[in-house]
Design a protein that fits this description.
The protein is mostly helical. The chain has 22 helices and six strands. 63% of the residues lie in helices and 3% in strands. A hairpin with a 5-residue loop joins strand 5 and strand 6.
Length: 504
Amino acid sequence: MAASSAYAANLPAVPEWLNKGDNAWQLTAATFVGIQSMPGLVVLYGSIVKKKWAVNSAFMALYAYASSLLVWVLVGFRMAFGERLLPFWGKAGVALSQGYLVRRASLSATAHGDTPRTQPFYPEATLVLFQFEFAAITLVLLAGSVLGRMNIKAWMAFTPLWLLFSYTVGAFSLWGGGFLYHWGVIDYSGGYVIHLSSGVAGFTAAYWGRYCGNARVRTASQIHNKVGPRLKSDRERFSPNNILLMIAGGGLLWMGWAGFNGGAPYSANITASMAVLNTNVSAATSLLTWTCLDVIFFKKPSVIGAVQGMMTGLVCITPGAGLVQTWAAVIMGIFAGSIPWFTMMILHKKSALLMKVDDTLAVFHTHAVAGLLGGILTGLLATPELMEIESPVPGLRGTFYGGGIKQLGKQLAGAAFVVAWNVVVTSLILLAISLVVPLRMPDDQLMIGDDAAHGEEAYALWGDGEKFDATRHDTARVGGGMEREGSAEQQLAGMGARGVTIQL
């Protein structure tokens, strides 16, 4: 009896409005999304780049994740999900006090006319954590465009500024009760807020560092005031240093997407179930489509291409994961595996602009193009029944279900706002930072990579970055636990004399 009464529903720890199932799922979903960044994208970035950039690339993701959390609880969360300040922005405020965090979660700006205020059945602390994971992964994705040359100090300044002045605007406008939310632009779980914004912002950062025509940047100060392209040698040859780890990182990203799209309804409901299933179906379909296209046109399947196809499938379904039928998820997966494939593998090589911009991991194609594509397809395929369950805005439905051309127009207009805002704000942030900190590492450091940027290397292998130390390598163990005395040079000479080939 005592144990039972200790868990009574009327205790302060379990208030009447708290739904334990929703709270447990939302915390689990937040953890899944966090795993996508830490360690998912940290591992993916650290392995998909050249060996000399493994540490720097992984650290850029790690830093973005950590720095975002403090900015988020200090001011960012309430700018994205608090009371309305402007039609596209919420009022800044802290999310640190007990009184604020233990009360029932509420998105006050979502109330409008007959539209009720969104109030999940769990505390504000749960919502703050869940939405932080979304904000953090957006910055981590953006980093993929500027790997291999951006000054790490400039990146450290960029992440909090972009979170405050770009991400919070998109989040409030489309999710927190801003003008796009009430107008009826559909973005179920971040096709626009996360993927379109990160792809466009990353492309913009890389664009302002391009070399225009024959007018090459000449002075050191001019070079360092731009992110710039990677070194020519890096652009021509930038193969992964560990494809197996790359697949592992991609796998964490795929599995973590269950929380990404499954947590978007703010509840453990039917929409969450549909979203998780549709997410996996779209990802698998897109991966297979991309791989088949690689085989048809290039005669062999590419493992890197398969991971990219997986990514575009996940991104494309995100704007409508809980709003479309599963057969529609298959269609979206086919488009996700073919349209970004075409823009990356064909159009990119024919477009002068795309060729000039050095988007390291092709974030523009895998996130901006796929996110925009998903938003458009959601505007076509969202069902009225699922929209009624998910959206407090009445009457929303896809064009194919009676939404007409009006809904498609809203989707395109919402995308245009996100693109325009990110181009302008990202450019201004980079300009401001360049006045204080060089945006680009010097070329001599770019030649070296991790050791120059951090004084550390990913793989400390003798003969590959580690100097020979006679005090450490003057003995060698042989079979049976026996030791052979003498210097390493003498041992190698003896082995060579016995006909053993040595390669250092």
